[in-house]
């Protein structure tokens, strides 16, 4: 069975609607509002640019053909400059479907094909194909036919073991992932600056009786109004985060197909991922500060072909479950990915290593910022007061973050996986497949080794760029040696 040579679906032209047609839409709206052709003639350069991108996209559609045989995917494109791209089916690592709202209406899919090259260069290692629903299913079967771990006969995920995330789980994920620390810092900084300005206005108020009445109202009710504004900002942040999560992950479900996992989600833009289990390099259990308080976290997977940066400069990861309790994490993995189900026994950083955690950018930058604010001339009272207030808040936050990092940092070298845990306010637990590890090294000065018996553990793994290097600071030398001894080179 083969496919093509064939053009994609006509929706290929509109796949990047706002990117390719945004300027044209703005130009037409201006014409409808202004109704003055002369103004548009005066800006003819804008008109040319506005029409150029849609025309370019149309030419790409008309000159691009896809062919799939039993060995490779072939893409021929170009009008004057011909380009031929061939990807062996055996090297394909991922075939994902994306269906924005406009494609749902047209019953078309955007298919994202990745191969091993995309680990180093996403632009060279991926192909985007837009096809109708029937062609999309056929193409997916052909592209994954060479993968031993993929069962091309499976078409109905409802007939298999399926785990669905409830609406409550999805909303909870959005609510808990809002950075409470960031919001509090912004709110406190806003309160400090606004209070300083109000104090300056009140102190320098010399006017009519009416102006003095206004100043009295500000002096009496200004702090209350500021606190109310900060509270509204906090509530809106949580509402927006929750809404974004609902729209992005609505209908989330994961289906265990034996040798692969089928993940789909999305309200306005539907996405589906097929993850071959043998290509999984590791898992990440992310916990925001609020997630840690209620002992919850979100679980993601990274594998060859996932996590690369696409043409729109967006990082793509595969969420394995929106929110799961710490106590239920390994029982869930036992059901879905048994190879990751061993609970780790952690080796933490030695107490002597605590001072070395303060050798980080966020703490040093906060100290320098505070020193700089103290050097502001005393004559600039309000500016100096605001700068010192913000600097003290940032320094206190940095100190707490560093202390939390020293508590969170740990490694578990004795299980089937290498488990590394790090982070300050946000804690990240990374489970790495030993056979995918390419190197493990420790970084520390001789003085630090003698005084603390600790070093920074750095592990390189076969994965997309943002996951390819995992690091945890100030681990015991013995724990690092245990990690090395279990590696398969």
Describe this structure in words.
The protein is of the alpha+beta class. It folds into 4 domains: 144 residues, PH-domain like, CATH 2.30.29; 76 residues, no CATH class; 174 residues, no CATH class; 56 residues. 44% of the residues lie in helices and 26% in strands. The protein is built from 16 helices and 21 strands. The strands form 4 sheets. The chain has a 7-stranded antiparallel sheet with strand order 7-6-5-11-10-9-8. It has a 7-stranded antiparallel sheet with strand order 14-13-12-18-17-16-15. A hairpin with a 5-residue loop joins strand 3 and strand 4. The longest helix is centred in the middle third of the chain and has 41 residues. It starts with a strand and ends with a helix. About 3% of the residues have low confidence.
List its salient traits.
about 500 residues, alpha+beta, PH-domain like, seven-stranded antiparallel beta sheet, 16 helices
SS-derived structural category: alpha+beta
Helix fraction by DSSP (H/I, runs of at least 4): 40-55%
Oligomerization state: single chain
- The number of domains: 4
- Low-pLDDT residue spans: 151-158, 307-315
Tell me the fraction of residues in β-strands, as a range.
25-35%
Biggest sheet details: 7 strands, antiparallel
Q: How many whole angstroms does the radius of gyration measure? A: 28 Å
Q: How much is the average pLDDT? A: 80
Count of DSSP H/I helices: 16
Measured between the Cα atoms of the first and last residue, the distance is 39 Å
Number of strands: 21
> Strand order, biggest sheet?
7-6-5-11-10-9-8
Q: Give the overall silhouette.
A: globular
């Amino acid at each position: 069975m083969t496919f093509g040579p064939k053009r994609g679906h006509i929706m290929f032209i509109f796949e990047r609607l706002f990117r390719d047609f945004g300027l044209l839409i703005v130009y037409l709206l201006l014409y409808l509002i202004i109704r003055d052709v002369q103004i548009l003639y005066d800006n003819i350069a804008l008109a040319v640019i506005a029409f150029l991108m849609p025309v370019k996209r149309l030419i790409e559609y008309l000159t691009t053909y896809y062919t799939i045989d039993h060995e490779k995917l072939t893409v021929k494109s170009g009008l004057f400059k011909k380009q031929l791209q061939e990807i062996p089916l055996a090297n394909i690592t991922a075939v994902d479907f994306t269906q924005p709202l406009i494609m749902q209406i047209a019953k078309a899919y955007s298919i994202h094909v990745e191969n091993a090259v995309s680990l180093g260069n996403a632009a060279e290692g991926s192909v985007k194909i837009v096809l109708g629903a029937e062609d999309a299913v056929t193409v997916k079967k052909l592209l994954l036919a060479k993968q031993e771990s993929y069962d091309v006969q499976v078409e109905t995920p409802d007939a298999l073991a399926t785990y669905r995330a409830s609406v409550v789980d999805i909303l909870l994920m959005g609510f808990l992932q809002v950075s409470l620390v960031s919001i509090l810092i912004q709110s406190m900084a806003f309160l400090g600056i606004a209070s300083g300005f109000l104090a300056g206005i009140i102190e320098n108020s010399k006017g009519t009786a009416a102006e003095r009445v206004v100043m009295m109202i500000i002096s009496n009710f200004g702090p209350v109004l500021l606190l109310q504004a900060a509270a509204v900002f906090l509530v809106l942040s949580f509402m927006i985060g929750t809404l974004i999560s609902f729209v992005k992950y609505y209908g989330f479900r994961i289906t265990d197909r034996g040798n692969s996992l089928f993940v789909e989600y999305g309200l306005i833009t539907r996405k589906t991922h097929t993850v071959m289990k043998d290509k999984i390099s590791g898992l990440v259990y992310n916990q925001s500060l609020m997630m840690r308080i209620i002992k919850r976290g979100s679980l993601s997977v990274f594998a060859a072909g996932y996590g690369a940066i696409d043409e729109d400069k967006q990082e793509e990861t595969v969420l394995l479950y929106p929110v799961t309790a710490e106590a239920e994490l390994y029982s869930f993995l036992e059901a879905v990915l048994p190879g990751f189900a061993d609970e780790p026994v952690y080796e933490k950083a030695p107490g002597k290593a605590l001072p070395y955690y303060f050798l980080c950018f966020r703490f040093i930058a906060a100290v320098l910022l505070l020193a700089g604010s103290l050097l502001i001339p005393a004559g600039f009272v309000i500016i100096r007061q605001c700068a010192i207030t913000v600097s003290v808040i940032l320094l206190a936050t940095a100190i707490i973050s560093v202390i939390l990092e020293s508590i969170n940092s740990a490694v578990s070298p004795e299980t089937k996986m290498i488990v590394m845990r790090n982070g300050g306010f946000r804690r990240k637990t990374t489970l790495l497949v030993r056979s995918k590890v390419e190197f493990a090294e420790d970084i520390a000065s001789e003085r630090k080794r003698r005084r603390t018996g600790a070093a920074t553990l750095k592990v390189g793994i076969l994965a997309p760029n943002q996951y390819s290097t995992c690091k945890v600071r100030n681990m015991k030398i013995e724990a690092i040696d245990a990690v090395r001894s279990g590696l398969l080179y």
